[in-house]
Amino acid sequence: MNIVQAFLHRARRHPQLTALSDGGQSMTYGHLAQRSQALAAALIHKLSLQRGQRAMICMENRAAFFETLFACWIAGLCPVPVNAKLHPKEVRQIAQDCQASALFCSSALFNGLQNAVSDMPSAPALISVDDGAYLDLFNYESLSIAELNPNDIAWIFYTSGTTGVPKGAMLSHRNLLQMCLQYGADIDCVQAGDTHLHVAPLSHGSGLYSLPHLFNGGHQVIEKAFSADVVFEALQRYPRVTFFAAPTMLTRMLRSTAGMANAAGNLHTITYGGGPMYVSDLLQSLELFGPRMVQIYGQGESPMTITSLSQQDHEGAQDAAHLARLASCGTPRTGVEVRVVDEAGRDMPLGEPGEVVTRSDTRMLGYWNNPSATAAAIRDEWLWTGDIGSMDELGYLTLRDRSKDLIIRGGSNIYPREIEEVLLRHPAIAEVSVIGAASADLGEEPVAFVVCKPGASVDAHALDALCLDNLARFKRPRDYLFVEDLPKNNYGKILKTALRQQLKQGGA
Fold it and tell me: What pTM was computed for the model?
């Protein structure tokens, strides 16, 4: 079975169930299936796309995301969802890497993306989902499902690497189906008519977790962006609401509790992950929401499927043992093996830190067109996550550090190297190092330590302009700290731990 067969099975059984609601407009399962099959036919017969080719989806949260996603699967194409907040140059880089044949986008993004990709040697067909030409694509007769293998690629999940170059994690139909089964086993049992609220980007975790809801008759309520008011309003309007949130979203909701008194009864489950959740914030969240929270730990390479901290794990007296459990990211998911190892792959003693490795049917196939990165990440069937953690005697995993220097800003991943490479393009800069600084609202924000060349100078405004011309706005450093030199070890490697300490002590 492939991922789209599960959806079409639900659509045939319950065509009148509401599948999507977006801005006051709703679509039934039957209508979504019909539109997806018609669009799939157009992709094959009108756009001449062929099985296995990549089709990018770059748009704000909206219903069109789902019909393009399912159309790609029905046609045998490989969808590549990307964050609509990315800079057009970043989208171009991904399009070049995956050799995209088509790129679906919203009208708001069309001009910027057209300028970015039009001169590519094999430019993808750019399709605005707000254009009349897009509507014409639904005039085709429905297409039967393509013959797909469980190991065929179903989703390429792009994540920046430590080099700043995005890497495409290839997720198979088997990976996604197993993810859905794990959701029912470990997170929640979805019932027909349950509400799945989307306030996080569909291109990432929220979109992935829509699948178990769609397969079980859930109602997808789509919001373009997160705000506490939007969530509270949805909680008053819809039954049995589940939503995926970054920890920073929850902390913002803690500061805006006006609507919670009348809405708590409709809250079913909050699934949170994608960044550190501090115990103090978690205790406040539990006081506000009750034991309706589940933490998940995963990566694009093993989508949301490594460990989980269940609703039951969140319950209990606030003694030392319970607080330690809340500081963890839970136990291995159903069908998932997790170990903590040293550099040679030997198991570390309980409580001792090491690298987290995992093996399961949700582990990616590898990185698209990047055999060296695949070989480094997957060794003897085990995925080496790059995260540092420790395991206790009951199997609870606690993350200690991120070996890849990842910065998580409001649930969005930022790798310092990609910012550093852009800043180093400025002729006045000799060296630069970017670290994460604590932020009450966003969790972390990037801060750049800058060393200018002898006799040269540059101001923060110029560096801001350089970043905004090459990177997504959310990756722009919060501060630029100009220093005479950067701390280094004997081998010339920059000591980011020293920079973090320097930042804590007051900057430069």
Answer: 0.85
